[in-house]
Structure formats: C-alpha cells, structure tokens
Amino acid sequence: MEGRQERLTIADLYPRLNKDHLKEAEENLDRYLELVLRIFERVEDDPVAYRQFKSLTASKPRPKMNHQRSIPSANN
Fold first, then answer.
1. CB-based contact 10:26 (threshold 8 Å)
2. C-alpha 65: how far from its chain's center?
3. Which segments in the chain show pLDDT lower than 50?
4. What is the pTM of this model?
5. DSSP letters along 4-71, please?
6. What pLDDT digit, counting tens, does each position of 34-54 carry?
7. What's the CA gap between 46 and 64, in Å, rounded?
8. For the chain, percent helix, then strand, then coil, each to nearest 5?
9. Would you tell me the crossing angle of helices 19-45 and 47-57 to the nearest 10 degrees?
C-alpha cells in the first residue's frame, strides 16, 4: 500500500447518507468543481486578473518574533 493512493468517495465521508442523498451530494460536488474550473480558466486568461489572483494566493512569510529581550530602563 505504500505509495498507493486510495480514492476517497462521498460515501466514505458520509456513510449515513442514503443512495439518493449520496447521488445529490456527488452532483453538487461535480457542479462546484466545474464552477471552480470555469473561474480559474477565466482568471488565467486575463493577465491582470491572473496577477491579482497570484498575489492574493501567494504564501506570505510568517512574522517572527525577535528573541532579544528589551533591557528595562533604570527609570522604571
């Protein structure tokens, strides 16, 4: 099984759904993924929108704390 990916299904995620509800959930997921693909293709075809998309989805560096401690002033 090492290196092998098993396909996860809606039924695996929601084992208590009946057949009709599983079918509806699968259809909803298919429609959602089609919408996401259409949005991405539209953005990808527009250079300005694509730059904005890349900027919005880029990994941002995590802020780091400075490990130095401040020296309390003698006046406190």
1. yes
2. 27
3. 1
4. 0.59
5. PPPPP-HHHH-TT--HHHHHHHHHHHHHHHHHHHHHHHHHHH-HHHHHHHHHHHSPPPPP----PPPP
6. 999 999 999 999 999 999 999
7. 35
8. 55, 0, 45
9. 120
Distance CA 70, CA 68 (A): 6
Extract the tokens encoding 43. 């953005």
- Residue in the block written with tokens 């909803």: 28
Q: CB 36: neighbour CB atoms within 10 A? A: 10
Do 28 and 13 touch, CB atoms closer than 8 A? no
Distance from C-alpha of 28 to C-alpha of 34, rounded to nearest angstrom:
10
CA 37, 39, 41, 44 torsion-angle sign? negative
Question: Rg for the chain (alpha carbons), in Å?
Answer: 24
